[in-house]
Amino acid sequence: MIRFLTTHIPLFRILLGLTALILCIGLALTAFQQRDSNAIQLNPDRWSWAPARSFEDAHPPSEGWQDHVPGTVIPAKAYWIRVPIPRNGWADPQLFVLRVGSIKAYADGAILYDYILKTKQVHTGFHWKMIAVPLPAPDHVDLLVKYAKHSPLAASVVIGNKSSLLNIILINDLDNLILGTLLLFSGIIALGLYATQRDRLYLFFALLAFSGGFAALVRNLLLQVIWDIPQLAYFHDSCLSLATFAFIGVLRHVFPTINRRKISFLLWVMLADTVLTIIAALANPRWYYSFTINSFGPLFAVVFIAVSWTLWTAYRSRKDLESIWLLAGFTSLTVISLIHMYRFILIFHLPEWFNERMLWVHRLPADSLFWGLFLFVVCLIRVIMHRYTGMNRQLTEFNRSLENVVQTRTQQLQERTEQLETAHEQLGASMRENAEALAEAMILEERHRITGSIHDTVGHTLSATIIQLEAAKRLIAKDHDLAEEKLEASQDLVRRGLEDIRQSVRLLRDDASYYDLLGSIGALIREKEHLTGCQVDSQFDLLPLALSTFQKRIVFQTLQEGLSLGIKHGSRKPFHFQFIIRSDMKTLNMQLIHLEEHDYSAKDLGFSLQAIAEQAALIGGVITADDEKTGYVITLLLPLTPAS
């Protein structure tokens, strides 16, 4: 025994806490619920009844009255009830009548109250009528009632001042009102959690809370004071099936691996039972009550066994917070449900000596079943809080690990970025070195070309001059004028050869003036204007200081070759050019525009300009030649970024 208690201490501790909770709430409600002894429950044993021809009778019969015998079936659907009125000095006497549908009230031949029930979908046990009694109070009041079938007299009548009767309603139903409000509020919170988390556990919890809260509120006589809709209480029996369906759904999602097939099967069965119950309620009240009694009872027994076995299995195998709290809540709900069943059903089938020892049960609230549901909901809230806390803890740990990963990755990226920047700088330096080396190679190649050109020019000039001199020598004696022409031709050949040699030598010079780009460009333009008579209009921006020697050579050679091509292919003299250099932080843009008429195209530009374009492409440059409105345009674009 001691070992058993020690093993299950957490479960007993929670059960004790739930008992203390319900006792505290009960004492708190009792503290301000003062019963009013002014109202009196009228005893049906003193009543008498008489059959009515129909519910349209205009006054009570003068004869045919019979004493009422409790439990006797009255052989009429419409009949009169004579209720004696005691003398108690009430200032505002009212009859509070329950469990009747259509009713008329008469006193001393005058009608006091007339109510015709217009729908069969009403629960008369929760729809009361309050009938004002005239003063001075009569000896009796005659009630004309109408029922759908022959049955024992079921009417309940309480007399008292109106304030006393309302106070009784408040005393009896305040707990239901509070519990219903709490359950509905819990359902709304659960729906909010489901909207954000999309966990079906919250959805089933909301269904359980809403079904219990709705039933608690409509099984409440106080609700009629606020909102008089008799059909609401009629549907409260359907909440039994809906609540059971939601309960099974909660169990399936809390313990998804325990008795999964059986619980899933019962879940679908209870869903079908709930749907059929609602359909029967909407179709016919008789079908509704018959189906509820005949189907829900056996199903509930099966569900109770399956749920008990599942919870006990989960508790024995896990013994964690969820299994302990749900088993404690289910145990509390079961005990309170058994008390409720004893009070309203089993009491009529048990021996008298047992009932005498259970009189304390009648001091409990009439709808104690909702207290059991409330305790189970409290336990379920604890389970949801545990899950939510665990989820937040996991999210916190995940965020922490994610932050560590991000920090590590960021550090790696920073290191990689630094490495890439270093490599980029090294690559830029290497490219600049390669460009300089390429420029030196170009210079050397150009020197070889110019040297060969000088050799060819000298050889050609000397050979032609010798031929002209030899011809002049032979013609001096024969034709003096022709000999003189030959000598002049020889002189021109020598002069042109000398000019070509000078130009080649100028290109071979490797001093600072060659790399002074603006000075070299100015000298080139002046020379071309002097030798050919052309006109070059120049527009310069301030050139970047970071231009390399290779870039300067590309600019100079492009201008030199463009002027030579324009002079060679121009259609008329004097030749007119416009030379423009623009630069920004990223690009140098050079344009040479031939403004006069010309007869050449891009195909006539020759291999020399193409060779320069290939050299410019090595450092990201582009040379284009286009025929535009302003003239024939040769354009050079050079990037000025460090990569160049």
Which architecture of the largest domain would the CATH scheme give at its second level? Up-down Bundle
Q: Radius of gyration over alpha carbons?
A: 57 Å
Supply the number of helical segments. 17
N-to-C CA distance? 92 Å
Number of strands: 17
Under the CATH scheme, which class of the largest domain? Mainly Alpha
Task: Report the CATH topology name of the largest domain.
Answer: Rhopdopsin 7-helix transmembrane proteins
**Backbone shape:** rod-shaped
Number of domains: 3
Strand order of the largest sheet: 3-2-5-10-7-8
Report helical residue fraction: 55-70%
Strand content: 5-15%
The chain-level mean pLDDT equals 82
Low-confidence stretches: 510-514
Secondary-structure-based class equals alpha+beta
Q: Describe the biggest sheet? A: 6 strands, antiparallel
Keywords: ATP-binding, Kinase, Membrane, Nucleotide-binding, Phosphoprotein, Transferase, Transmembrane, Transmembrane helix, Two-component regulatory system
Catalytic activity: ATP + protein L-histidine = ADP + protein N-phospho-L-histidine
GO molecular function: ATP binding; phosphorelay sensor kinase activity; protein dimerization activity
Protein name: histidine kinase
